[in-house]
Design brief:
Chain lengths: ~375, ~375
């Protein structure tokens, strides 16, 4: 067997998520709990009645690609030719890492805390990944100086997920510009930024930065999974400058051939409907306010969510996050994701999702506060 | 960029298919022209109304996997745990090649003429692929002795596509057993066979062999694309013995996460409906008989189709297939795929698909016969 496959460890997120029982309060979920709008699926069904369900071009349906490119309007990434429709943004990220990096020479730079898939994919491809940790003191805010200081002559791609899974922090325009300007001043081959925008429609602060808007060497990945509660549709895309875009299509063609034609029709119906990408945004905004209220009253240390649907809370000093997550599952029937899954710098933290009904989130936070209070108090010496 | 991506050449099939005009007779198509049954899509839509569209397990929905495993009933490949649901059989083949072979050591053996994706995928993964040519004299029948003679100490996987794209030949049980028995007698690590069964429901002869039925080291890939005219659904699967199956799921999880939940519901509706996989089989059988009649009257040399929906015809001695395909497109408005796309041993042949209405196929064959007759006659010397 391929030793790169064998060497990849299992998912800590799934290890904990597997402890879920019928009664569990599940704050581990990484997917929306809202139902999707059926009207877009019905539109796709009607189109399928008329036209069957044949392959599209490898890169995806031309009309959809034009609509996606135009919707975001990032300079140089706004034409159909810059768009490749993918089987979820997961395939988009995978194909980007595989295509852009020469395993013999190039390195990936991950801004941590980071979604673990980036590191696993780079290992699968034999690509060296370096990490740069954002600062706990600064509540893991995106820090241009830290990121830039970690860029080496071998760095060809920096992965930034904003709004961030797990921290729920959002990169600002100022930080995007500081990074972009500095990278442009570097001599030699361009350093690309992969901006994973999957939580773009869940942004609760002003001044969010988008690399695609100002930095020429940007590749964007996104999908309908989080914006429209369509994780199971597996429909995402990459935006990339040419000729990178053409190379992504080539790799994608051999990995999965083309994205689902049915899913592409759902996506076209969404992109043709003004406001459809934001149809759940108000609910997330309200829920995020409620969460802030809950956490303020909990006594827990937390990072205020600026986007996505997570909130991260600090464990008492010295408590390991994996052990804490197991104890919370076993003794408190609460599922929470250990910070160590997102990098060493996130040890001592838990990622909670707050897509469950607010009463459940409240009860979950209350049990975690109870657990933390007990853990912080030394057991009495008898 | 990754040099393995850059080194892969474009698709000859797409180069010719791109010449299609509004008036073309298209015998290049590799997908069914029948409409799919809407009832399975409606069943999936109703389930989505009730349950939304969330992720499934990486390996796929447990009920679907159990149904797939049980349907084929291959010993050791018949439980849910041996099945991984994929984004089309394309991802199934890709993940199998990526997972099973160590690029530093292992080799793939391709039985040619072969669908070009296998070779492209192995190049993408840096895996050495060797090829073994079936004999033109024998109408490219699967030949156990030729295949076995090509197995080296480094061969870890043999790819067999039967019914075959492009030759439309079907491997027999006797040949499967001869290969399987000989491979079992070899010392050392097992040699796996990847049996690509995508045209399984288009089989027109008795005695078809299936490696999964008798050879323990088999991985099967298949999908709903050809059986149910659902190429655009992107729903396929692998069947593999454990622990190979577990490793395939691991790779698949990082490449695409999971197959479309909607597509999996369509598949479940199909596997729960007796005979649904064969719903188009009678049409293909009738069409294949009609094709045999056409070709017999055409004066062309051809390989009688035993399966799939192709027929291969020989060009006049010395005529290159790529040049012939271009001339047919440019001067006769007929799209046919050059044999060279499927390996050197298939130079001098064309692959025709016969999923178009029979009158169109008749006209296309007639024009090809005219072209071949003209090409075979030396121009008069003035």
């Amino acid at each position: 067997m391929n030793p790169s496959v064998q060497a990849i460890s299992g998912s800590l997120i799934r290890e904990i998520a597997a402890k879920r029982t019928a009664t569990s309060i599940d704050l581990g979920l990484g997917e929306p709990s809202l139902p999707p709008s059926m009207k877009y699926l019905l539109a796709a069904l009607r189109a399928t009645e008329r036209q069957g369900l044949k392959y599209t071009l490898n890169a995806g349906d031309l009309e959809l690609r034009a609509a996606i490119g135009a919707h975001y309007g990032y300079p140089g990434l706004d034409s159909a030719e810059s768009v490749c429709v993918m089987t979820g943004s997961q395939e988009g990220v995978y194909v980007t890492i595989k295509t852009l990096l020469d395993p013999a020479r190039d390195e990936l730079l991950l801004v941590e805390p980071a979604f673990p898939a980036y590191l696993k994919m780079s290992r699968l491809e034999g690509v060296t990944a370096r990490t740069v940790a954002m600062s706990e003191v600064d509540d893991f805010a995106f820090d241009a100086q830290r990121i830039l200081a970690a860029v080496s002559d071998r760095t060809r791609l920096i992965v930034v997920c904003s709004p961030c899974n797990p921290t729920a922090r959002v990169i600002t325009r100022a930080v995007v510009d500081e990074i972009g300007d500095a990278l442009l001043r570097r001599a030699g081959q361009p350093v690309y930024v992969l901006h994973d925008e999957i939580y773009r429609e869940q942004t609760y602060v002003e001044g969010a930065g988008h690399f695609g808007a100002t930095y020429a060497h940007t590749i964007v990945t996104n999908s309908l999974s989080k914006s429209n509660a369509l994780t199971g549709l597996r429909l995402g895309w990459t935006l990339a400058p040419r000729p990178i875009a053409d190379a992504l299509v080539k790799t994608h063609a051999w990995v999965t051939s083309c994205a689902s034609t049915f899913a592409q029709r759902v996506a076209l119906a969404i992109f043709e409907t003004p406001g459809a990408l934001q149809e759940h945004a108000a609910w997330y905004r309200e829920q995020s306010s409620a969460i802030l209220g809950l956490l303020g009253a909990s006594g827990l240390r937390y990072v205020a969510p600026e986007g996505a649907f997570y909130v991260c809370v600090a464990l008492p000093q010295g408590l390991k996050s994996l052990q804490a997550a197991h104890e919370l599952a076993d003794r408190f029937d609460v599922i929470a994701i250990p910070g160590i899954a997102f990098g060493d710098c996130f040890e001592g933290w838990l990622r909670l999702s707050w897509v469950a009904p607010i009463d459940q989130v409240r009860e979950g936070v209350s049990r975690i506060a109870e657990f933390c209070a007990a853990a912080a108090t030394p057991a009495p010496t008898i």
